[in-house]
Amino acid sequence: MAKNHFALFGLPVAYEIDERELARRHRELLSACHPDRFAQASAQERRLAVQTSAALNEAVKVLRDPVDRARYLLALAGVPTDEETDTGMDGAFLVQQMEWREALEEGRADPHRLTALGREWRAATATRHEALRQCLAGGADYPQARRLVRELQFLRKFGDELDEAQMDI
Questions:
Q1: Which residue spans of the chain are classified as CATH 1.20.1280.20?
Q2: Does the pLDDT value for residue 116 go beyond 70?
Q3: Model-level pTM?
Q4: Which are the contacts of 21, defined by CB distance < 8 A and separation ≥ 6?
């Protein structure tokens, strides 16, 4: 097995990746080690095929998602995001989150408000994704990238709640 997810697929360790190439290599590698190909092999070979397939699937899942990919790059650089234990966030960002949550509750009865809130959320998310791309390009700004990853996690959760509220209307 390769040292990291990027090496597993023969990709450079970078935030920006060729997603079509990733998909192509994933299919190619998965085809070569698919457990069905090892149905008549020894128990050890079958187990290795299952483990390899699982590792490939986990790696492609991480690399396909920009936030997970950024989190993985930070981990490779020795920069933990500590999302479960570090609850400190930028005050302005937290205030925005509280305002959006209030607007979400108020908007459950108003589809137009939810639509406007969705536009605000998409713009905030896109801005942070672009900033994250810039942070991780070239001379990486890891502290800023860490902050953006953590904010994008909050935004992802809010986006899920917003989608759920829009489906309920």
A1: 91-168
A2: yes
A3: 0.85
A4: 9, 11
